[in-house]
Structure formats: C-alpha cells, structure tokens
Amino acid sequence: MNTININSPTNSFAKIITPIIISVFGVYLTIGMTLGVLPGFVKNDLKFGTLTVGIIIGLQSIATLFTRAYSGKLTDTKGAKKSNHSGILLIILSGIIYIAAAFSSHSVLLALGLTILARMIHGISESLSITGALTWGIGLVGAQKSGKVMTWNGIAMYAGIAVGAPLAIWMESMFGITYVFALIILLSVISWISTAKLPALPVDTSHVLTPFYKVIRMIAGQGLGLAFSSIGFACISSFISLFFAGRNWGNPSMAFMAFGGFYILTRVFFSSFTDRFGGYKIALVSLVIEVAGQLLIGFSTTATMAIVGCALTGVGFSLIFPALGVLAIKKVQPQMRGTALGAFAAFFDLSLGLAGPAAGLIAGWYSYQAVYIFGAISCSLAAFILLYNKNR
Length: 392
Fold this sequence. Notes:
Order of helices and strands: HHHHHHHHHHHHHHHH
Shape: globular
CATH topology of the largest domain: Growth Hormone, Chain: A
Structural class: mainly alpha
Helix content: over 70%
Number of strands: 0
CATH superfamily of the largest domain: MFS general substrate transporter like domains
Radius of gyration: 21 Å
Number of domains: 2
Distance between the termini: 49 Å
C-alpha cells in the first residue's frame, strides 16, 4: 500500500493532518451516537431507572480514565498508528455487542450486561484511538505544531459528539436502534481507512520508559490546571438546563449552542496562537475569559446574560487543553509523548467525573447560580496553579 510522503514539499500541514482529523471525527461520532440513544434504550426498552442510566453512560469515561496509562505505554512502545488502529478495531467490537444487546432486549438482564460490556470496550477504544491520534499527528508534523494538532483534534471531538447525538436520535426514530449501532461499525471502518496510508512513526525500542506515576508527577501542574479549568464546562453541561428551568427562561438550547459554537470558532480562528505565543500566555488569557463567563452566568438576571456567559466560557475553555498540553509534552522526551498525553488527558477525565457530583451538592445546598460561582473559583485556582508552576 502506498503511503503519504510527509517530507514532500507538496504535503502541507492540512494534507497530512486531515486524515487523522477525519478519523477522530468518526470515532467521536460513534460516542455521540451512543449518548443520543442509550439513555432511552436503558430506561424505556429495558425498564431500568435513571440511576442505571447514569451508570451506563458514565462507564465509558471510567474505562477511558483507567486505561490512559496502558494507551500511553502502547503508543510509545508499539507506535501511535498501532494504538489508534487497535482502538478503532475495539469500536467495531463494541458496535457488534451493542447490536447483540438490542436483539436481546426481551431478556433485560442479558441486554443490560451486554450494554455494560460494550460501554467498557467503547471507553478503552476511546483511550487508545485518541492517544494514538494525538501522538501520531504531532510526530508527523513536528512538535513545533503540537498546539495546532491538539486544537484541530479537539474540534473533531466536540463536533463528532454534537452531530452524533441528534443523528442517532433521528436514525432511531426512522429505522430503529439496530441501524444506529450498525452505523457505528461503518463509521469505525471509515475511520480506519482514512489513516491507512499515513506512515507509522518510528519507535525507539532502546529508550527506557518512565513509569506512568512519575509522568503524572512531572505534568501534574498542567494536569491540575486542566482539571480545575474543566469544571466550568462540566457546570454548563450538567446544570444549565435546570438553571434555565428554575428561572422560567424557556429552552436552554441557545446556551448549549453558544458554548459549543464559540468553542469551535475560537479553535478554528486561533488554532495557531498556542504555538505562536506559548502555552502559558494563551492559558492565562483563556482562564481570565472563562472566569468572566462563569461569573456572568452566576450573576445573570436574564437569559441573554446567561447565554453570553456560556459563549465566553466556550471562548475561554477552547484553547486551554492545547495550551497546557503543549507545556505538558515539553516535560518529557519525544519517546514519551504518548504516555504524557495519556496522563494529561486523565486529569480531564477525572475532573468531569468529580465535577458533576460536587456541583450537584452545591446546587442542593445553595442554588444553581452558586454552581457557576464554584466554576469561576475553580478556574481561578487553575490560573493560580499555572502561575505557581511558572514561577518554580
């Protein structure tokens, strides 16, 4: 099979990275599709309660979190292409198990067990495929463009989730849930094919790998900054609907669209800023904007104020992952990029897992507005951590 010559002058950044972005978009389409149909499948078809629905949805993130170390090690020792394609093959397997669960809906315990298994495999696949994709892209275009690679990968991820959920809901209403799961398999095949001609990165087998816990310690400053900054995003995704309902402001869809739209636009138009101006400057400016957005939501007296706050949060949060990610991978040798990216992303997984329950307790004790004060304080802590580590 012919492969793309990355050293050819005719191959620009876009030509090299586009196949990887297409693959990532396909992977996250499958994730978005399951978020669109699985809650209804578990609650309406299998007749389980909302707690079970929450557990089923959360299992994927838990599986992703606990396999970050393995995905990083596999990427560094076997190659980014191997890690990415192994993850995609696991998505195909999860799609097959999802279909088996749909056909077993008459036996609810069997169907639930198959769904749990599929969610765990889907989570492992996300860890492998995305760690591989990020490391692969940075290796192909050069570390000096690592921020741009992370930025475009993030666009593909969020766009895939945003498109996947409504697409799956429409498909289920027209054709049935089995066709949704079948499309997951087809999208996985397309994701694999899109990167098949890209060359694999060389693997330095003589390099002694640093243990994962030591890598965690090395990039902890950037990881904690990411974790605290992600709480603002978690507060919007978890509680903005209830906040709008409590204020009788109507449909909160504009709030979600404002956050997502400005998140993507910021990445599209400012994707090169991290590489041009450095991770510290971009992260600090982004955190200031995110704090302003969270405070605007927290003190909003109209729906318009809250929507503008969501938009500002989207602008602020957009470049934090690539900005801090660039700083994180500079802490390790090139042969350890996969492990470093896996460790860095684990902070994001952990943040989303803990932020929802914490914000829920705050909303119960105080109010929904207090949730966004909590988000602003968390982003301020992220800025403090960043400044502290820079001074060190």
